[in-house]
Specification:
mainly alpha, 8 helices
Length: 149
């Protein structure tokens, strides 16, 4: 309670005005302008916002620090909503969803072509002796190329 009555002292009038402005920002629900939202919706912008909140916790009234933390989260949320990155993160498919879709598209039925190739292909089993072929390979004119052994 001491920190609350401390806020109303004459030397802390600037902090009281800032508390009133932050409460108005939270209650009114203004959307963040797009140029400012573009700066805030980056990693550097978020770090600067939380640096300001850390400064508020260290050097001002604790009530102002807690209120600043709420406003920081709300500002980051409103900025991502204004730019559209929040919707992108919500609706963009993850790698797991994409791989499930691709595997569903790659399920083909057993086709007639596969059946005929399976019937025509010679069956080579390991350990079986190879039979002599009925033909003899013949080299064509090599055009004075050397033979490979």
């Amino acid at each position: 309670m001491n920190s609350f009555s401390d806020l109303f002292k004459k030397e802390h009038m600037g902090q009281l005005i800032l508390v009133i402005l932050l409460i108005i920002y939270l209650i009114m629900g203004y959307s963040t302008p797009e140029p400012i939202a573009e700066m805030i919706d980056t990693m550097g912008g978020k770090l600067i916002i939380f640096g300001i909140v850390g400064y508020l916790f260290m050097y001002t009234n604790p009530i102002l620090g807690i209120l600043g933390l709420f406003v920081a989260f709300d500002l980051i949320f409103r900025s991502s909503k204004a730019i559209g990155n929040g919707a992108y993160m919500k609706f963009a498919p993850s790698e797991e969803k994409k791989s499930n879709q691709f595997s569903a598209f790659n399920q083909f039925p057993y086709t007639l072509e596969q059946e005929m190739v399976k019937k025509m292909a010679p069956i080579n089993q390991t350990g079986s002796t190879l039979t002599q072929s009925s033909y003899k390979p013949v080299l064509d004119n090599t055009h004075e190329a050397s033979q490979l052994y």
